[in-house]
Structures are given as C-alpha cells and as structure tokens.
Amino acid sequence: MASECLFCRIATGEIPSARVAESARCVAFRDVSPQAPVHVLVIPKAHVSSLDDVADDSLTAELLAMARDVARAEGLVDRGYRVVINTNVEGGQTVFHLHLHVLGGRRMQWPPG
Ligand code: 5GP
Ligand code: ZN
Q1: Which of 14, 17, 31 to mutate to test the pocket of ligand 1 (most atoms within 8 A of CB)?
Q2: Which ligand is the nearest neighbour of the Cα of 36?
C-alpha cells in the first residue's frame, strides 16, 4: 500500500532524501547506503512495484532518460557508469517500488554478484 511504501513516502517528501532531480512524474535522490562514489536512485512518484508492473512505457522511457541526465549532471559520462534495475527476489530487489540505480565514480565489475 502506497502509504506504507518507503519510496512513496520519499517521493512525497514525508521521509527526507537528498534530491538531485525531479520532474512531474519522477524523482531522483541519493542512496542512503551508497555502493559507489555516486549512487542515485530514480523512481516514479506514483507507486509501481517493479519493472514488470509498469503499465505505461512512456514512464519507463522517462525514468531511463532521468537516469541518463543524472549521470551527465554528476559528470559520469566520460569515465562511464552503470544503470541497474533489480527486479523481484532473485534480481536482488529489496524495496518493492520501482527504482533505477545510477552508479559511477569507480570501475564496475562484471558479472555482478
Ligand atoms: P534494491 O536492493 O531494492 O534494488 O535497492 C534498494 C536501495 O534503496 C538500496 O540501495 C538501499 O540502500 C536504498 N534505500 C533503502 N532505504 C533507503 C532510504 O530510506 N533512503 C534512501 N535514500 N535510500 C534507501
Ligand atoms: Zn511506493
């Protein structure tokens, strides 16, 4: 339920976060437990549980475009960066409100763990 969802509460500002970008439908904020020098989460303001639950792919595109814009604004483009969407349990998703991780500022490993 949206009122009990952590990222819904971050989207409304009820729970504080360090915002770096905002549009009508999306918001980006710094991860509280960064896994790289830059670690930003991009979310839809409206509750969507996972990538598999997006009903309107114009939202998917808007989220990805905001992730790209955040990477540009954080100065990550030349060195490179990674955008990750963990989806459901085996994908490593722990917060069930869709979010894109934008990670950069260090060399990424492949394959991921
Ligand atoms: P997931 O594992 O679901 O892909 O990623 C969830 C992310 O949310 C994790 O990287 C975690 O550090 C981040 N996170 C969890 N709680 C909070 C919070 O209260 N504030 C912020 N800014 N990030 C959070
Ligand atoms: Zn939510």
Answers
A1: 31
A2: 1
Q: Domain residue spans in the chain?
A: 2-104
Residues contacting 35, CB < 8 A, separation 6+: 101, 103
Q: Give nearest CA residue, ligand 1 atom 19.
A: 32
Q: Which fold, 2-104?
A: HIT family, subunit A (3.30.428)
- Tell me if residue 99 is catalytic: yes
Which run of H or E residues covers position 16? none
DSSP 5: -
> pLDDT tens digits for 5-64?
999 999 999 999 999 999 999 999 999 999 999 999 999 999 999 999 999 999 999 999
Report which residue type is found at 81.
Answer: Y
Residues whose CB is less than 8 angstroms from the CB of residue 76 and which lie 6 or more positions away in sequence, other chains included: 38, 102, 104, 105
